[in-house]
Amino acid sequence: ESSFGTNNQEEGVDEADYAKSDGRFVYTAYGDLLIVLDVYGNEIYRLQMPPLIDNTALDPLAEKDLTQNRTVDGRITLETNDAGQYRKKWRAGSESNGRARDSGKRRPSNRERSKRQKRVNQRDAAPITYTSQPKIVDLLLHPESNRLVVVVKEYGKAIRLTVGRTGFGTVFNDYGSTHIRIYDTKQLIEAGPLELLAYKNLNGKYQSARSIGPNAHIVTTSWLNNYDYLESKLDRDQDEFWHMDDEDYFVAAEKKAVRLIMLYTRQIMKELEMNNNCKNMARIALLQDGLSFDIDLTRDTYSNGILRYMTEVSSFDMSANFESMDITTVTSGIFLPTAKMRIYSSLKMLIVAGEGKRVLEEEDGIEKKTFLIGFRLDGPSSTPAAIGNVPGTIINSYAIDHYGDYIRIATTSVIQEDYWDERTVNNRLLILSLPENNMTSGNFFMEEVGRLEGLGREGELIKSVRFMEKMAFLVTFRQIDPFYTINLTDPMNPEVIGELEVSGFSSYLRPINDDQSQVLAVGQEADPETGRLAGLQISLFNVSDLANPTLITKYVVDDGSRSYSSAEWDFLGFRYLVQSKILILPVTLKSFDVIDENFDGFWTFDISTDGITKGFEFRHVSPENIISYCWYPALLPTRSFVFSGDVVTMRSHSILRHSLNSGEKQWELDLDEENTGDCSPYFI
């Protein structure tokens, strides 16, 4: 069995990730490096992103191919930089097989002891250091056109120096902070290099990205430098104003403001590259009616209001014929008073959910709300199409769903006057109808049509949500875990039809069979009396009867150490093999008392209605080296890929290949093995 696709929320909507595979190759980010492996685990290509020159200049073509001497059997050598950081060592065979934890303590090899001592010497000789360098933050892949999109950050400073007005800088303080590069991958088949086809700088800090077929949609957010362009120029202490009385100041300041706004607007248009075409930018007036909390535009369009941030969606066709290495993008956007957001996308609509808040003067507390902006997707373009707001905040993108003409969303409101006071919590599920024909009717506002309030016990928070067409599963937690089944057949009347109380809570829910009658969950066990966490747990639920959900079986890691899986919050690290009924899960064990009890790697589990059984464990670092402080300042994504019954796992600084039948290690690549120039903790 093979399984190498991304664990996406919505079928047909590919989520950007640090690691991707097309079934022939695995592409992964490691700091400023793009590394390519074949499906047998052999590294065949390594590319370093263009460095910043003296921290102020960028040559986009100055990427560096660190791969040398490719050979037929996959053995390669790598050019080493001045610090000796990038040198690959081929190692075939197996030092030790994957094995169950209870089969005995694992003794470190001589090589690991030597490496640990070297790192201790390095740690004692030099302090922990962090170097500023470009970083690959995500990848998008379109196998049909052999195209790979690489998203890079840390170039913004060099780019802003060439765009902003003298003495002002740019309006968008994060101008050019997101850099995208498109590569052709087809030459890799013949042991050739990746070919750079095009590149482009986008405004704003990178948030997330989705692709539907060849069409990519990248979301970024910029903070607006209103102070230099507007506010400081109208300050009463300016030389031209300080001697005026109030009446003269207001008249003079108004005249100057008109001129400043014109300059401000032109600079925004320049930086947005809109060419006087704003049809894809949502009007500020829409925010006043659809998003605001009774916002006063004259008061709130500055540093703490609507004109605080700009969120942009940049869309393009990955399969296009790029000329002059330029990427043609269609940009849409909206002003928002927040940069804290979640991104969700269906096949037809991308939703930006921004978190906002307001002070409750009467209740002397703070209420949080969520702004919802829907961008309608049409090929390589997006258009603002729907705006709304709901009370409370969402836990992650799985709390949003687009189904038919409705947006379904689960939120939590917490009101707490003081840290020591008892909090008031309200969990709810809301259904909003989308506006029809908004381009002709002018109606852009989502309308609430259904609401389900009061989910969970007193003080409990939503921990996980999963929408499944006409039903939903929802988990809340404070001391125990109520697992709810919700009927969404009637959008006007959502209702809880089943509830199951179990200890602990589930962070991620995944239906695992065709009729969606079984739900596999990953989360934490907890003491039902105190709510204190007790370790990683995996649960299997039966939801064939929505009115009577049951717990089929549960596995708890209870060995005295602090145990968890990064898949509890990073769902792309979860991999379930449907045919083999095997779960491959990243696992971390931390013990402060016994070093040998520390573990970082992957475990496999056999999932059955008769029970959940642990299979193999694949260790990515020895317990001694976890506490070492001399590691290259980058991390591999925690991901797994399965090719014909063999699993390739990547974690932190190493990539392993094992047989899922025997647990035998077949191959290992330690990306940090020859690092002598940087000193950073194992967990950055």
Give a quick summary of the entry.
With 684 residues, this protein is mainly β.
Describe what this molecule looks like in 3D.
Helix content is 11%, strand content 43%. The protein is mainly beta and 684 residues long. The strands form eleven sheets. It has a five-stranded antiparallel sheet, with no helix packed on it. Residues 69-108, 122-131 and 288-304 have low confidence and may be disordered.
Count the DSSP helices.
8
Percent range for β-strand residues: 35-45%
Uncertain residue segments: 69-108, 122-131, 288-304
Mean pLDDT: 82
Query: What is the count of β-strands?
Result: 43
Share of residues in helices: 10-25%
Main sheet summary: 5 strands, antiparallel
End-to-end C-alpha gap: 34 Å
Alpha-beta content class: mainly beta
Cα shape: globular
The whole-angstrom Rg is 27 Å
Arrangement of strands in the largest sheet: 1-15-16-17-18
